[in-house]
Amino acid sequence: MPQLTALDAQFLHFETATNPANIAGLAILDRDVNRADLQALLQQRLPHVPAMRRKLAPVPLGLDHPYWTQEDDLDLDYHVREIGLPPPGDERQLADQVSRLHARRLDRGRPLWEIYLIHGLSGGRMGLYTKIHHAAVDGVGGADVLAALLDLTPEPAPPPEAAPEHDPAPPGPAGMLARGLARLAGNPAHAVRFAARAIPHLDEIPVVSWLPGAGTVSSLARRLAGSGRVPELPPLPAPRTPFSGPLSAHRRFAFVSLPLEEIKRVRKAFQSPAEGKAGVTVNDVVMAVCAGGLRRWLAAHGGVPAQPLVAGVPFSLRAAGDEGPGNQVAIMTAPLAVHVADPVERLRHVRHAMHRIKDRFSLSPARWLREFSESMPAALMGLAARSAFDLVGQAAPPINLMVSNVPGPQFPLYVCGARLLSHYPVSVITDVSGGVNITAFSYDGSLDIGVVTDREMVPDAWELAGNLREALDELLDVDVVPPR
């Protein structure tokens, strides 16, 4: 009886015309793929990808979170579409097309995904844009959806022999209402338990952590609970930037690929043997590149703030091998040292902050977002989520942007015989998270970075993407880094 969790439902509730909750990826293939061939591949593999066979079944009167129901007669002509780019078919034209597609909300009366074959890309290449609603999958689940189309060789692999299990049917309207009323009756107890569990973690919760005494109260609560000392988190009031505040309905998308070998060269140059695993990591270098790129952009558009930006950094809560449905993520906030002019000092600042956060997260996973969502009555969650988004987005956004780095396979993959050259994430921006999202995906020796911005706040996302390349060059030019 698959039902959306409270956190999954939040991604439905906060979605508006200006805050679409689509997560997506843009794959660049070395040649055109036929739509009929892709549909045939999907027909073969969709039975093994539950997230692509489910659609929403709302609860009467909105008393509880919706259920998933299986769509047995999937209309692939609707879900798989194709469009063409006019000559010359360059990367900017491709990104403009993806910008328009990404801003469109998905039809909630159907399974929440679409795939676009984008023909006409220069050099005989093709774009494959795949989007799915965030209520259906998190970043890890989205990668699993893409993996359903991919093969290790140009020859597609045969489907698994084991017949997939069908999702059990949701209860009827009366059963949904009964369960919804039972959950409603239990919500006060859930809220009390959340409040008790949240006190030791007040310094992790955006906005709440800024209140006077929040850090002292949470530290005292941890000591009383016998949790021992955990690393203190840096104070993070988010400065105002040109990309803070309510978003428009329009997006900009750009992408850039950085050689993974260059990222690793910087890491090795600043890796102290005495520090071991506590030294600079690939992720630290990626975060420092983002900080450097943002510093360059801010310097050209209104000035660099005198304090770090605050980045929301998603962490997966999935255990190894867990392929369960829905969202299993937490958000940690991290300072991005855009205020530091020297690239080496900027990297050290980022490295120190990220290691403190990782140490804290390993001892005390940030589950407050899920637990808070579960403590809210489902019947009120939609109104509360939208009202909170409006209030926080306009008054005190807790973060400036989202930054994520997802490790991927370091070997070539194929779709219907075409080689996957690059894969750029296309993620979510909201009124609360700010008008910029930078997500990196490492694949086959490259760090493929997708930059999503609000068109009114950051009209030229390509400028920011280019700044990331310049920020890496700045680190590579430091004397201690071996020459290219």
Could you please describe the fold and organization of this structure?
By secondary structure, the chain is an alpha+beta fold. The protein has helices at residues 6-13, 35-45, 76-79, 91-102, 139-147, 173-198, 214-224, 260-269, 282-300, 343-363, 368-375, 378-395, 461-476, and strands spanning 22-29, 54-57, 67-70, 80-84, 113-121, 125-133, 251-259, 309-316, 329-336, 401-406, 414-415, 418-426, 436-443, 446-454. Strands 4-5-6-1-12-11 form a 6-stranded mixed β-sheet, sandwiched between helices. The chain has a 6-stranded mixed β-sheet with strand order 7-14-13-10-8-9, with helices on both faces. Strands 2-3 form a two-stranded antiparallel sheet. Strand 11 (414-415) and strand 12 form a beta hairpin. Helix 8 (260-269) packs across helix 9 (282-300) and helix 9 crosses helix 13. The protein is globular, with a radius of gyration of 23 Å. Residues 210-214 have low confidence and may be disordered.
Order of helices and strands: HEHEEHEHEEHHHEHHEEHHHEEEEEH
Radius of gyration from CA coordinates: 23 Å
Helix content: 25-40%
Number of helices, where a helix is a run of at least 4 consecutive DSSP H or I residues: 13
Largest sheet: 6 strands, mixed
* Alpha carbon gap, first and last residue: 56 Å
What is the subunit organization of this protein? single chain
Calculate the mean pLDDT score and round it: 82
Largest sheet strand order: 4-5-6-1-12-11
Helix and strand content put the structural class at alpha+beta
In terms of DSSP E residues, the strand content is 15-25%
Using DSSP, what is the number of strands? 14
